[in-house]
Amino acid sequence: MTNHPPIISCLWFDHEGEEAAAFYTSLLPGSATGTVTRYGKAGQEVHGRPEGSVMTVEFSLSGRSFLALNGGPHFRFTPAASLFVHCGSEADVDRLWHRLVEGGNVLMPLDRYDWSDRYGWLSDRYGLSWQIMLDRAPRANIEITPSLLFTGDVAGKAEEAIRAYTSLFPAAAIADLHRYGPDENDREGNVKYARFALAGQSFSAMDSSMPHGFAFNEAFSFQVLCDSQYEVDHYWEGLGAGGDATAQQCGWLKDRFGLSWQIVPAVLPKLLSGPDREGAERVMDALLKMKKFDIAALEAAHAGRASS
After folding, report:
1. How many C-beta atoms lie closer than 10 Å to residue 188's C-beta?
2. pTM for this one?
3. How many whole angstroms separate alpha carbon 126 and alpha carbon 265?
């Protein structure tokens, strides 16, 4: 594969996706909202959502792509997946902290720690988890990195997951990997902190053997946009191997570490949001019957012909 597939952080909300996207983009430079899609035909309900209500909102934060999805009250964010914000000034740390913590909860107080002179961990008013840190190395721009905490049944598997992910994606590498030593706060050899790249985008991960009582779930997933059926097959099979087969529907899968992914043809948003509304409805009907997406069948549905 020569291209780098976009990996988009998808955030599941009950109904507040548009509000949350507007709030987040107001906080960070290099941020904007994009395409908004809506449910069904006017006057109808689709999967319990009022027709015409917002389904998804594309947005970017400091140049990184996100998708807000209004999917109902089925899933809630947990600190197992958070957004790690790297800042170059105390002023940025303090500004973001005080805006995000309004109506939210403090998980680790904003303070000086071994790894940063100013760091805090919170969940915002929507439940989304953020880690905000002053970098000790000089930094001109704010950077946002999805951060994964491997705990519960997958505590101690962060390194295995990182190596699995970096073996599947292009432009992938492990930049830093620090393990717990003897007499530290976790099992010796577990990942204390790791930073890695997938498709040229940065991610971080940690292990924690403490009894947190939370785990990964569908509220925070990663959408992989694929240019071909070959790519769809590659990521579906690679990420789905050993995962939860019952979760595999409509392009969603849960990998063997419990992390959720959406393997989506890059053409699908165009098929669903173009001027041909009848074609878009046929595509929606077709995709709801699929587990792994079939690009040819989706395009055939849009055109109103039988797939070969």
Report:
1. 10
2. 0.92
3. 29
